[in-house]
Write a structure and sequence with these properties.
This protein is α/β, with parallel strands linked by helices. It contains 17 helices and 36 strands. α10 packs across α12, α11 packs across α12 (about 430-455) and α12 crosses α13.
Length: about 725
């Protein structure tokens, strides 16, 4: 039997929809895609429009759809824009102000006027109970049900316009023993059965109360919004004839069902970017690349991720809504498993301005889809990166593939003149060059910062570029970062949505559990790891059940990690743990693994210091399907463009006559030499006069430096 699957990625500007069909008779896989403007008031409307487009193009029937996989920025936008539910936080007496006091760290050490980010929940909505559990699990102050019931009446007895729509519960040291949180949740649900309750011992059972409290608050804050949205989307898909299960891709790069996503919506915060990293990892596996820099640029943001051994780097915490670009500690910490990447406001819709010092600034504000860049003719008047690319000839109304949008060159020029050119006494073309260079440098700096934070040399990596804007800017980033090779895959403009279709069913369970290597208790650690594996397997099993399969039918893969440090350090590094249970020499084994990992991160281990494990994680997933390896194709023939257009060339910093080549006209071994643009529906690949692109057998464009560049460097 054949199969039909759809991936839908809702971004800040465009909603990408991809349909993949396999006829089941050896005819191979066909793919159809579209980009539609994101509909902010009802994101599901844009999704359904995109679904209708690709289904019609494929000549398919929605009743035959097997799987629908979705990634969304809705949770992220709600946190950034503070548009979530009216939420209460109930915590241990003495910790009411933890989410406002944060930690002792100052993200700008010497700024006397430093303003900390505003907490997600105001002080008037934070309440306390006089319970207390110690870090070793000892009950210091028992849970008082009478006090709890009295507080619940306070939470329930509010005017209708101030009624709580969600409640977060975060008690001190609940990651060790969550019984107090669970009992309080039971009492809440008896009195307020329609109000969703999130407890930190389930959402983020990890030490560090600020991060844990903030995560459970974020989960509760977006829960009503996400639950309503997902149920509405599932119902509307059903009305259109799609009876298949709906899955969400979570921040760790795996699939969960709607119920799991509705319970833990905080895990959806990085869902779209996670799909992009999976897409890049799949391309890396096909090409046998072990060091890849994934570069995803859409209409609103740019995301950069390091992928080693064909696996994206992961972390157990990250920040959203940073108030200072690149500055750790200036955002909202979220303690969940996540594919590690750096994200900045540098997309096609990022707005360009001139600051008081006369410097061009690009982003983080974006024109989004409403009103969009000035060139879109949808009401936008501010100059954006897309407007600059149009003025520089890199984009053209003839090849811009978004349906319903006719690019307006004069509107783009007017916007650049008005907001940048006038302020700096330059014409529109010069202003456009400035905007493009600033956004490229911003992204190059982000890549450098991300690589340095992970102890890597970015120049040793191959870049894989995708997203509607990335192929336009990737060549210039390679020049700035001294990266030798760039791959632009087929379907690059909708790469994240394609990544959804490559994602496994997966879930990662985490827990804090202190264990020193000198006094290691293997039995306690083994029990804890079994509990984590059971928790992760339950989520995967629940998702698989809707496909008609079970964990008994699928050989699941399990990864285990310990998060370790030298005693007294403030943070940990991940250390892989074998699948076999620990025995009497488990502490020694962990110590050796830690020292090796520490050397890889920091260059050398430190002798004589005690070593301890703070946190543990177990990831259970369905196996990654095998991929067909692609052999590198050398240039066999040069392509002579049939037409040209004036384009600003980044290598010579002049406007030159550049070839215009249709990507669909290229065959394996064809070489295009810059300056040129390779155009296709929904995106464009820009080559400078120092670059060339060779079409590979799998449809990827391999962009490298030309000999002329090497000769110039030698001189």
């Amino acid at each position: 039997m054949g199969s039909m699957r759809i991936g839908a990625d809702v971004g800040g500007t465009f909603t990408d929809v991809v349909l993949e069909m396999d006829d089941g008779h050896g005819g191979g896989t066909r793919m159809f895609s579209t980009k539609v403007l994101t509909t902010y008031d009802a994101p599901e409307r844009g999704i359904l429009d995109g679904v209708a487009t690709v289904v019609a193009e494929a000549g398919a029937d929605l009743a035959d759809l097997d799987t629908f996989i979705h990634g969304t920025t809705l949770a992220t936008n709600a946190l950034i824009g503070r548009t979530g539910a009216r939420t209460a936080l109930v915590t241990t007496d003495g910790f009411r102000d933890t989410i406002e006091m944060r930690t002792e760290s100052r993200f700008e050490q010497y700024d006397l006027n430093l303003v900390l980010p505003t907490p997600l929940i105001e002080r008037r909505d934070r309440h306390v109970l006089r319970e207390r559990i110690a870090a070793d699990g000892t009950v210091l102050r028992p849970f008082d049900e009478a006090e709890a019931r009295a507080l619940i009446e306070v939470l329930a007895d509010r005017p209708a316009d101030e009624a709580y729509e969600a409640i977060a519960v975060g008690f001190i040291h609940a990651y060790v023993d969550g019984s107090h949180e669970r009992r309080f949740r039971d009492l809440l649900q008896e009195r307020l059965p329609d109000v969703p309750v999130s407890i930190s011992s389930e959402v983020a059972p990890q030490m560090r109360e600020f991060e844990r409290f903030n995560t459970v608050c974020a989960n509760a804050y977006v829960q009503p919004l996400i639950a309503t949205y997902l149920r509405s989307l599932a119902a509307q898909l059903l009305e259109t004839g799609a009876t298949c299960p709906v899955y969400l891709i979570h921040s760790g790069g795996g699939l969960i069902n709607v119920d799991g996503a509705a319970r833990f919506p905080v895990r959806l915060i990085e869902s779209g970017p996670a799909g992009g990293a999976i897409f890049a990892a799949d391309i890396a596996a096909r090409h046998g690349l072990d060091r890849v820099l994934s570069y995803d640029m859409g209409g609103t943001t740019a995301k950069i991720c390091l992928i080693e051994d064909q696996t994206p780097r992961t972390a157990k915490t990250f920040e959203v809504a940073r108030t200072h670009r690149f500055t750790k500690g200036s955002g909202m910490p979220i303690s969940i498993p996540v594919i590690e990447m750096i994200e900045i406001g540098a997309g096609g819709g990022s707005i360009a301005t001139v600051d008081v010092l006369g410097q061009i600034r690009v982003g983080p504000l974006s024109a989004g889809s409403e009103p969009g860049p000035a060139a879109y003719g949808l009401g936008g008047t501010e100059p954006t990166v897309s407007d600059a690319n149009l003025v520089l000839g890199r984009l053209s109304a003839d090849t811009f593939g978004a349906p319903g949008i006719d690019l307006d060159d004069s509107a783009a020029r007017d916007a650049l003149d008005r907001s940048v050119g006038t302020a700096l006494n330059m014409d529109a073309e010069t202003a456009a060059v400035g905007v493009a260079e600033v956004v490229d440098e911003n992204m190059a700096n982000a890549a450098r910062v991300h690589a340095v934070e992970n102890g890597k040399d970015v120049a040793a990596f191959t870049m894989i570029a995708f997203g509607g804007g990335a192929p336009l800017h990737a060549g210039r980033l390679c020049e700035k970062l001294d990266v030798d090779e760039l791959l632009v895959p087929p379907g690059a403009s909708v790469g994240s949505a394609i990544g959804f279709l490559r994602a496994p069913f997966a879930y990662e369970a985490l827990r804090s559990h202190h264990a020193t290597v000198d006094h290691f208790d293997p039995d306690a650690v083994n029990r804890m790891l079994v509990d984590l594996a059971d928790e992760a397997t339950a989520f995967v099993s629940e998702a698989l059940a809707s496909t008609g399969a079970s964990v008994a039918d699928v050989p699941l893969e399990t990864e285990r990690w310990a998060y370790m440090r030298y005693a007294g350090q403030g943070w940990e590094i991940p250390v892989p743990v074998d699948a076999a249970p620990f025995d009497a020499v488990g502490g020694e084994l962990l110590a050796n693994r830690f020292e090796k990992a520490y050397e890889e991160f920091f260059g050398r281990a430190i002798a004589g210091l005690a070593v301890e494990a703070i946190g543990w994680s177990v990831r259970v997933s369905t196996p990654r399907p095998p991929v067909d390896r692609v052999e590198r194709v050398a240039a066999a023939r040069d392509v002579t463009p049939h037409r040209t257009r004036p384009i600003h060339d980044t290598a010579s910093d002049t406007t030159r006559s550049a070839g215009v080549v249709e990507r669909d006209d290229l065959s394996s071994g064809d070489r295009v030499t810059g300056p040129a643009v390779i155009v296709e529906t929904q995106t464009t690949t820009l080559l400078s006069s120092r670059q060339q692109a060779v079409m590979q057998s799998d449809g990827c464009l391999l962009v490298t430096r030309t000999d002329a560049r090497d000769e110039e460097a030698d001189r």
